[in-house]
Amino acid sequence: MPALCRDCCTEAADDAARCPHCRSPRMLRHPELGALSVAHLDCDAFYASVEKRDDPSLADKPVIVGGGRRGVVATCCYVARTYGIRSAMPMFKALALCPDATVIRPDMEKYARVGREIRGMMEALTPLVEPVSIDEAYLDLTGTERAHGASPAVVLARFAREVESRVGVSVSVGLSCNRFLAKIASDLDKPRGFAVIGRTEAATFLGDKPVGIIPGVGPVAREKLAKDGIRTIGDIARLDIKDLARRYGEDGLRLARLARGEDTRPVSPDRETKSISSETTFEADISDPERLTAELLALSEKVARRLRRAELCGASVTLKLKTADFRTRTRARSGLPPTGLAARIHAAARELLAKEADGITRFRLIGVGVSDLRPGTEADRGDLLDTEVARTAEVEKALDRLRGKFGNAAVLRGTVFDALASKNRKG
Amino acid sequence: MKVTVERAALLKSLGHVHRVVERRNTIPILSNALLRAEGGTLRLKATDLDLEVTETLGADVDQAGATTVPAHTLYDIVRKLPDGAQVSLETTGETGTMTIRSGRSRFTLQTLPDTDFPDLAAGEMAHVFAVPAAELRRLIEKAQFAISTEETRYYLNGIYLHTIDVNGATKLRAVATDGHRLARVETDAPAGAVGMPGVIVPRKAVSEILKLVESAGEEVGIELSASKVRLTLGPVVLTSKLIDGTFPDYQRVIPTGNDKQLVVDRAEFAAAVDRVSTISSERGRAVKLALGDRRLVLSVTNPDSGSATEEIEVDYDASPIEIGFNARYLLDIAAQLDNDTAVFRLADPGSPTLIQDSESAGALYVLMPMRV
Fold first, then answer.
1. How far apart are the C-alpha atoms of B176 and B243, rounded to whole Å?
2. Inter-axis angle of helices A241-248 and A250-259, to 10 degrees?
3. Closest chain B residue to A345, measured at CA
């Protein structure tokens, strides 16, 4: 069976427990090792790993990266995970589980910088890199053997080693024949993992896994499937594809294919952005509509800047709220004149907010997103009556230039400034 | 209450009244119509709190009184009763129900007390005048299509009705716009209208008025206060809240210096636009107008499905120009024009175009171009 040493990255063909070259026990064996070329790469506890890298005294301590006392765990290190802390867990719960944990406010700019460095290294391996998030991407290494003088498995093992030594964080690799299986593989051996799912074993491997591991099958879909007696991926695979199509339509067909380990979606570097959004969790719950509106303006500005940077605009605005008792409300307005302006996004979101913020209900989170995206050239054309829009666009462009030159805090809108000031007063 | 009415008369009146009632209501009584029998008449009333329609019809009143019953249910019952039938409506005091009898049919409906029925208290109406029904209909019909549905600019969700001095004569004008197109229709102002405030009549009221004006007779009585309008259309009285906002200065939007004049056969133009737009996708329904010496080439290019062109002979001798419009909007306007020939006045591909009938100056349309 083909084997590969993950430390010295040499290929071997024997079944020895340790690498014949460097005596490392980290041997990877798989019958299809040389034949698979689609990978999913995921950094381990990314934010926390970056923080530990920058402060080695934290190395063996539980570290949580997340928003203050309130808010949620963005990432926690593997030490913290032994206490039962998970990402997206409310901070107070996490701290109840592990009061000694070091909590670090996320420094998104730093993580983005590190993420870009890693992405640069990925792009040196293949042009087919599809980023999923700041620390996660799909890579298609098909046809790169000659260029690298090595199989994708070797290239990926070298990559993982290099990221560790050069960047100082660890990655987990999932290698298979398509995106779906690669994604599942990368989760199998975390952290610092390298897992392989072969073409021939896919169906058997998936058979006893719960349907919930399929991307897009959340709690609601899971329940619906369970009602129909479908709990494992094997249950789906056993059903007739026509039956599935009849019962679940388009989704049914997709499930049927994935359950058989088939996934034809290509890894494509320029996948379309569907929406751009931003949200924030408050230090303390807010019910005052005026303060919520101010928070919304700051978020609208963020979204508008990102839209403009991507040369996009959108015709649909979504408001997201989470009440103090963790109920999420989303409200959307579509069919708006396509916009990339904070003022417009804010105006639409504010109207939606007015119907929700009654001054009594307390909210812990607010977010705004723009979807129904189109090219930036369609943005804010104004119409017969709308002569303000050109001026507003100029104002926001000027703000962009100022912030580009002097940083994000160089200039603030009065409402946002007030909101910040009152936040600081309350400490 | 006990009253007997002729089925056809009741059906006609209910037909007018029940449309006001929303299908879904959070306030139960808003699903109901108010029935009041007194002095040889039956009065029906329905409201959605913004709009109220009342109609009075002749009836045999055995016992005066009032009640409210679900409007759509009552309408459906009366609709299904045989033609020429007599319908008797009787409330049974204690149990809170109303019995409907006709021939061998018998229905019992739950009622809600008439005293709970909301009244759109109109207050004093400062301006009272009458408009010929045909003129009112023309004003509304020709402007209605341009009313905006966008909630952000709520003050565009209706027709702006106002008077204005044009060369010494006072005109009554109806203006509607959604920012992409604008319709301005006018007629000679009736005597009592002079000095009336400019008001924005909301869309729902506009479409009800248009339906009711058919059976209104010669004249429609209009009464105005600062916040409400009341129209008397034959046996029907419609009261509506006005949109509380300021209609934008639309005069600013109407181009005056457009010097390129295009004259087209209206029917031929509309048919050609309709044909080429078959190709366009739902979203970008742009049709390109290329104007040269005495000819107009209409074209649509849709990267997903193909392309279409059609050439028509026109009256045009200004410098060549290419300009794009939303095909739907062009058709909407073409449908409102009365004459056989339509006149376009254009400036450049980025500026609004003016569209009018070749003869009558009573209606005028402005259309924003699209980039093509």
1. 13
2. 140
3. B152
Summarised one tens digit per residue, pLDDT across range A77-124 is 999 999 999 988 888 888 899 999 999 988 888 998 999 999 999 999
CA–CA distances in Å: residue B4 to residues B37, B61, B83: 10, 7, 15
Half-sphere exposure in the Cβ direction for A288 (13 Å, CA) = 9
Q: Are B47 and B118 in contact (CB under 8 A)?
A: yes
pLDDT of residue A427: 43
CA distance B14 to B261: 50
Per-residue model confidence (pLDDT) at position B283: 58
Q: What is the pLDDT of residue B342?
A: 93
Going from the C-alpha of B356 to that of each of B165, B170, B361, the distances in angstroms are 20, 21, 7
Residues 298-357 of A with CB under 8 A from B: 335-336, 347-348, 351
Q: Which residues does chain B have with pLDDT short of 70?
A: 94, 122, 281-284
Residues B153, A383: C-beta atoms closer than 8 Å: no
From A32, A51, A130, A136, active-site residue? A136
Q: Residue ranges per domain, chain A?
A: 31-200, 203-259, 275-426
pLDDT score for A407 = 83
Question: A58 to chain B nearest CA, in Å?
Answer: 52
Q: Which architecture does CATH list for A275-426? A: 2-Layer Sandwich (3.30)
* Active site (annotated) includes residue A145: no
Positions in chain A short of pLDDT 50 = 427
- The secondary structure of residue A339, as a DSSP letter, is B
CA distance B57 to A342: 56
Min distance A154 CA to chain B CA atoms (Å): 43
CA distance A240 to A232: 15
> For residues A300 and A292, what is the distance between their CA atoms, to the nearest angstrom?
12
**What is the predicted pLDDT for the residue at B122?**
67
Residues 230-269 of B with CB under 8 A from A: 248, 253
Under a CB-based contact definition with an 8 Å cutoff, are residues B91 and B1 in contact?
Answer: yes
- Give the CATH class of A31-200: alpha beta
Closest residue in chain A to residue B372, using alpha carbons only: A378
Q: Between chains, do B151 and A351 touch, taking CB under 8 Å as contact?
A: yes
Nearest C-alpha of chain A: how many angstroms from B372? 12
* B368–A383 C-beta distance less than 8 A: yes
CB-based contact, B333 to chain A, within 8 Å: no
What one-letter code names the amino acid at A51?
E
Residue B284 has a pLDDT of: 57
Q: Provide the 3-class DSSP secondary structure of residue B117.
A: coil
Contact assessment for residue A234 and residue A208, using Cβ atoms and an 8 Å cutoff? yes
Establish, for the pair of chains A and B, how many residue pairs have beta carbons separated by less than 8 Å: 27
Question: Residue A128: helix, strand or coil by DSSP?
Answer: coil
HEC string of A221-289 equals: HHHHHHHCCCCEHHHHHHCCHHHHHHHHCHHHHHHHHHHCCCCCCCCCCCCCCCEEEEEEEEEEEECCH
Quick check: A14 contacting B, CB < 8 Å? no
Nearest to B163 by CA among B175, B177, B155: B175
Which of A336, A355, A385 to mutate against chain B (most B CBs within 10 Å)?
A385
ipTM of the complex: 0.72
> Tokens 């500026």 label which residue?
B351
The edge-to-edge listing of strands for the beta sheet with A102-104 is: A73-76, A63-66, A102-104
Q: Which chain B residues are within 8 Å of A338, Cβ to Cβ? A: none
Whether A290 and chain B come into contact, CB under 8 Å, resolves to no
Class of domain A203-259: mainly alpha
pLDDT score of B204: 95
Rounded to a whole number, what is the distance in Å from the CA of A336 to chain B's nearest CA?
8
Least CB–CB distance from B179: residue in A347, A351, A386: A386
Interface probe for B, chosen from A336, A372, A384 (most Cβ of B below 10 Å), is A384
